[in-house]
Design brief:
Largest sheet: 5 strands, mixed
CATH class: Alpha Beta
Strand content: 15-25%
Structural class: alpha/beta
Number of helices: 2
Radius of gyration: 13 Å
Distance between the termini: 26 Å
Helix content: 25-40%
CATH architecture: 2-Layer Sandwich
CATH topology: Macrophage Migration Inhibitory Factor
C-alpha cells in the first residue's frame, strides 16, 4: 500500500512528471502512487498535493526530507521547461492539512 497518493492533474503533471515525483519520494523512503486531483489549479502558483494514507502525523524524518524533495521535483520541472509546483502540501486521509512545504520557508500548517 502506498504511503501517499499524489494528485495528478493532467494540465500540470504528465505521466513522466508523476514518475519523477514518485522517484523523488521513493528516495526519501515514501512510497507513492498517482490519484485524480481533488480540485483544479492554475499553472501559476500551483501546489503539489500529497494525501498521507496513515492516521497520525508525518514522521519527523519524512518531514525533514520534504523540503529537499520539493527542490528536486522543481528541478525536474525546470529541466522540462514546465511550470513547477510552488509548494507541497500534505493532507491527512480526511483531507485536513498536516503540513506545508514552501521552498523558501518550510514549515507546518
Amino acid at each position: 500500500m502506498a504511503d501517499v497518493l499524489v494528485e495528478q492533474d493532467p494540465q500540470l503533471m504528465t505521466d513522466q512528471d508523476l514518475a519523477a515525483v514518485l522517484h523523488v519520494l521513493d528516495g526519501i523512503a515514501v512510497q507513492g502512487e498517482g490519484t485524480s486531483p481533488r480540485r483544479r489549479q492554475s499553472t501559476e502558483e500551483w501546489t503539489l498535493e500529497l494525501h498521507w494514507q496513515q492516521r497520525g502525523p508525518v514522521s519527523a524524518d519524512t518531514e525533514a526530507a520534504l523540503p529537499e524533495a520539493l527542490l528536486r521535483i522543481r528541478e525536474h520541472y525546470a529541466l522540462q521547461d514546465r511550470p513547477a509546483p510552488v509548494r507541497l502540501r500534505v493532507l491527512d486521509p480526511d483531507g485536513a492539512p498536516l503540513l506545508r512545504v514552501d521552498p523558501a520557508d518550510p514549515g507546518a500548517d
